[in-house]
């Protein structure tokens, strides 16, 4: 079945460690997105990419890094510079079309840093 | 980025219609209006979107005001499975970004 996979579902890390969250899609979508969600809040955009080897910062990119070496994959690294990394992280993908197409979301990774 | 305003919460009884309002007074002429919903601990799910005309699909209907400054998501017969946070979003035509607000939490009672 086509869709977006994120792994792992739950992730625990010690403060000061970098951690990489996986996102893979087999929908042949050009665009991919990373969001962060804190309890009781809406989603905030971290990074997005509309083409391989290119990506743009979203609203809260500080302390995060991404790569887009393959169309299917858009991993997110949460670095030790991110002040409050504990959150629910969501990956999404879509076709590009001037706002016309829906975004498909993965199941999310819940990261806890202590 | 254009913003949307939604009530924090709404309630409905099962089998009744639900009208979820959204104000977007700063909408530009090319912004699409998207609605997504999110169940607890899951990723958001696409519901419907439109530009100017009213839209219907198997999940819901979207009624868009003539001046496009407001819209209403209509669930024709609420079920317990419709209990979720509903987000009304203007999708940026240049970047395709979705800018989420805090949404409306819909409670459905049996």
Radius of gyration of chain B: 13 Å
The helix content of chain A is under 10%
Task: Please tell me how large the radius of gyration of chain A is.
Answer: 13 Å
Number of strands of chain A: 11
In whole angstroms, the N-to-C terminal distance of chain A is: 36 Å
Helical/strand content category of chain B: mainly beta
Notes on the structure:
Chain A is mainly β and about 110 residues long. In chain A, about 0% of the residues lie in helices and about 50% in strands. By secondary structure, chain B is mostly beta strands. Chain B has strands spanning about 10-15, 20-25, 30-40, 45-50, 55, 60-65, 70-75, 85-90, 105-110. In chain B, the strands form 2 sheets. Chain B has a 5-stranded mixed sheet, with no helix packed on it. A 4-stranded antiparallel sheet of chain B has the order 2-7-6-5, with no helix packed on it. Chain B is globular. The interface of A and B includes residues 45 and 101 of A.
In short:
The complex is a heterodimer of chains A (114) and B (110). Chain A has 114 residues and is mostly beta strands.
Give keywords.
heterodimer, A: 114 residues, mainly beta, seven-stranded mixed sheet, four-stranded antiparallel sheet, 11 strands, B: 110 residues, five-stranded mixed sheet, 9 strands, 0% helix
How do the strands and helices of this protein lay out in sequence?
The complex is a heterodimer of chains A (114) and B (110).
Chain A lengths: L3 E4 L2 E4 L5 E7 L5 E7 L5 E9 L2 E4 L6 E3 L9 E3 L8 E8 L9 E2 L3 E5 L1
Chain B lengths: L8 E5 L4 E6 L8 E7 L6 E6 L4 E2 L4 E4 L5 E6 L8 E8 L12 E6 L1
Parallel strand pairs in B: 1-9
Antiparallel strand pairs in B: 2-7, 3-4, 3-8, 5-6, 6-7, 8-9
